[in-house]
Structures are given as structure tokens and as C-alpha cells.
């Protein structure tokens, strides 16, 4: 009799333990939103996918779904808690109101120019009536670059693309004649040698500091304590070389090292 009681208590204890929520993912299996962005994510693959899956594995969290979303929709779904995690997200005051955002690499926007533009300085470009600047809907850049885009928008010289493929298509066709883009995004597009010869890549904002791509966790779905578990595991992946190794699967060794040269915080 006593043995049966002990067995029942052990089974009850095991059931309770199994039912206890994982402190890293207290709301259960995760819904992850990705958006099309160069080597970070495309057709279910990319360094963002590998990073999130590795973090989930280390933290013993299940992934319920991985969905490709337009950038603005992914942000809105993060804000409402319809998805748990987003990636390649720049921390801005408005986004930090609804998401915990932790950087995992740093990079810098370059300027891509259509061959119809011969100028190579920002003041000369601004005086060219052929200048039409393209940007992807929902993208944020450095503070200086976002301010610059606001000025172009006021002058009706800004054209908004749906995603990066749409932006590069418009740049190739001359619908837009200039655009900001990150190496991890345009590198794949400029593998075409004919395009690489036609499109100039310049750093016209040399004083602009690199921007941090971050993993965003919805505040609706994660407490600060739960989110911090992801943050600490992300820092461990930086320290043990796992983040660099993941980047190397999709971009060159030099580009990967460049993205990881600044410390994460």
C-alpha cells in the first residue's frame, strides 16, 4: 500500500514537472516571423533562421511556426503578440516600446547608384534632377540616413518598395536611381557580374556608425526575465564562436568577421 502511494506521488510529481512552463518560453511553442532580407532569410533559409533555431535548441524551446512576413506586418504582429520573435530588427524608441531587442551583428548601409547618375558626392547627387531614392517599406536606417530620407520624401523624390527584391528590380530598371542597402542584402544581388559593373557602391555617410541588427522578442509574450535568458544565450553564442560560424554558412569569411567585429551588448 505504502509502495503504491509513493509510486502515485512520484507520477504526480513527474506530471507537475512536465507541465511546468519553460522559463525561457513561458507561453509555450514559439511563432517566429522572418522577412526577406539577403543572406539573413530567403525561402526558409538564412543565418537568421539558423540562429533562432540554435537558440531555441539551447533553451529547450519548441518552435511552432516560422512565417515569412512583410516587414511592417512582422512588426505589428510582434507588438500585438501574434508572433513571439522577429529578426534583423534595428532598435528604435518606438520598437523598444513593444519588444526586447538584442543585437547579434553590426553592419553599415552603403549607397547603390544607377549608372544614369554620374555624380559621386552627396551634394552633387542632390542637385541632380534624375535622383530618385528607393527604400523598402518599414525599413529603418541610421538616424542621419532616416533624416536624409525624410528630406527626400518632402521633395517627392522618395520611392517606396515592397521588399528588397522590388527595390533592386526598380534600381536595375532605373525607376529609382539610388538606394541604401546593407552588404548582407545586396551582396547576393550583385553576384551577377553585369550588375556589379553597372551599379556603383559608395559610402556617402562615412561618419555614420554601423547599425545593430537585433533579435526582437515581443513584450506581450516574454517578461524581462524570460527575454534575458535569450539575451544571455545570444552572448554565449558570440563568445563561443557559434554566431560567426552561422554567418559563415551564408556569407564570406571576411564579411562575417566584419559583421562581428563590434562587441555585442
Summarize this, please?
This protein is an alpha/beta fold. It is about 45% helix and about 20% strand.
Largest sheet: 5 strands, mixed
Which oligomeric state applies?
single chain
Q: Round the Cα radius of gyration to an integer and report it.
A: 22 Å
Query: Would you report the number of β strands?
Result: 10
End-to-end Cα distance, whole Å, is 57 Å
* SSE series: HEHEHEHEEHEHEHEHHEEHHH
Q: What does the average pLDDT come to? A: 92
Shape: globular
* Physical arrangement of strands within the biggest beta sheet: 2-1-3-10-4
Estimate what percentage of residues fall within beta strands: 15-25%
Overall helicity? 40-55%
Work out the helix count.
12
Question: Pairing-aware structural class of the strands and helices?
Answer: alpha/beta
Low-confidence stretches: 5-17
Descriptive account of the structure:
The protein has 265 residues and is α/β, with parallel strands linked by helices. The chain has a five-stranded mixed sheet, sandwiched between helices. Strands 7-6-8-5-9 form a five-stranded mixed sheet. The protein is globular and about 65 Å long. It starts with a helix and ends in a 6-residue tail after the last helix.
